[in-house]
Amino acid sequence: MNITLVTFAMAVAFSAVHIFVGQLRFLDRNPRSRWLSFAGGVAVGYVFLHILPELGAHAGTFEEATGLDAQLAEGLVYTLSLVGLALFYGLERALALSRDERMEREGRDRPHHPVFWLHIGASALLVGLIAYLLNHREDPSAAGLMLYFAAMVLHLVTADFGTRADHPEIYDARGRWVLAAATLGGWALGLVVELSEMAIGCIFAFVAGGIVLLVLKEELPEDRKSFFLPFLGGALLYAALVLGESWLAAG
């Protein structure tokens, strides 16, 4: 099987999420769709069973590449994750403040256009890096790639649904196409640019922080009225798949 064609198909699937998430009408409901809570659970499972262990592996890479003490190298990796989390938290707060200000002044429940486009730009960076990692992952196995794809496609459904809800007019007109182009561009960049293991570790750590924040942002607020059992089911199902894959690999 040609791995390049497989990862290209996955990148196209990611792009399709950006383009067609607005057509998934069954997700647009209050209380929150159980499917979104399930997707959030899968993403949380990915965080704990893939992201955290892989961050530990990248800490070893940082230690070898920089000659730093093991504890300091590990701290550096997690600091990069914290930077990713803080950046996306800041963007989410900026969106919320912009919406509140515009609602108070104009009676429109929409953020200002420059703030929303700043959010789209940061999201484009994140999805481009996610697509880049399709071709450069710590776990190169077929099972590892499929688990990564499954977790990321569900994460993108959740994240894109939340982004579109902030300003559906701009998202549908132009924003979704920017995200789709960034995804395919990130995948293509992964074919022609092979970064060092340390640089890959930096990218992965930053992406990890962004994913953690977006998962928490979509699932935890009280006004989301999320469902615990679908969330738990998604997390447990993903955990079972990861543990099963590990057991088969060990056998």
TrEMBL record:
Name under which the protein is recorded: ZIP family metal transporter
Instruction: State the species of origin.
Output: Qipengyuania aurantiaca
UniProt entry keywords in alphabetical sequence? Membrane, Transmembrane, Transmembrane helix
Regions that span the bilayer: 6-24, 36-55, 75-95, 115-134, 146-163, 175-192, 198-216, 228-250
